[in-house]
Design brief:
Order of helices and strands: HHHEEEEEEEEHEEE
Largest sheet: 6 strands, mixed
Structural class: alpha/beta
Strand order of the largest sheet: 3-2-1-6-9-11
Helix content: 10-25%
CATH architecture: 3-Layer(aba) Sandwich
Strand content: 15-25%
Shape: globular
Number of domains: 1
Radius of gyration: 15 Å
CATH superfamily: NagB/RpiA/CoA transferase-like
């Protein structure tokens, strides 16, 4: 099955899940993950409807600094957490803060529609994260995902970047 068809099917499957309950469990597992514990500068994402909500990880704000992506052209910029977010052309909440160098990050929490046993992710189709992750090869990555959306293998291309750690509710 090709990526666009798979995206459509998975988006429908996610609508059947208890997002709030699963997000809480997955956030707890991320909080206990070694890569998260050791990080000081973490890039989160602002969740879309039916996506794992990672925002409550910011309760560690006394120990960590948080950042969010902002799309500019074909690139993702790294912007510090701020009080004001604006809805982008892609219908994603983006911070109104100014970007910082991506090398500041030690961990990126990467959104995904699905992942496979080799840690390839199926994203939303823009390639933003794959391009971005290639620019910060030393930064750890975690993708939070519902266990039912972990597949044996997914279609992937040469430009797709593997995620280092996958965190599910089980």
């Amino acid at each position: 099955m090709d990526k666009p068809k798979l995206r459509k099917i998975i988006k429908e499957q996610r609508k059947q899940l208890d997002t709030e309950k699963l997000s809480k469990v997955i956030r707890s597992k991320i909080h206990e993950h070694e890569a998260y514990k050791l990080s000081k500068h973490v890039m989160l994402y602002y969740p879309l409807k039916y996506e794992i909500d990672v925002l409550n990880l910011m309760s560690d704000c006394d120990k960590k600094r948080f950042y969010f992506p902002k799309v500019e052209g074909d690139s993702l910029l790294v912007c510090p957490m701020c009080d004001e977010f604006k809805l982008s052309n892609l219908k994603i909440n983006e911070p109104c803060s100014n970007p910082v160098p991506p090398e500041i990050l030690d961990l990126i929490i990467v959104p995904s529609l699905a992942v496979d046993a080799e840690n390839y992710r199926l994203g939303y189709g823009g390639g933003f994260y794959d391009r971005f992750l290639k620019t910060v090869p030393g930064v750890k990555t975690i993708t939070p995902i519902y266990s039912g959306l972990v597949f044996e293998n997914l279609p992937h291309d040469d430009f797709d970047v593997k995620i280092q750690h996958v965190v599910t509710e089980i």
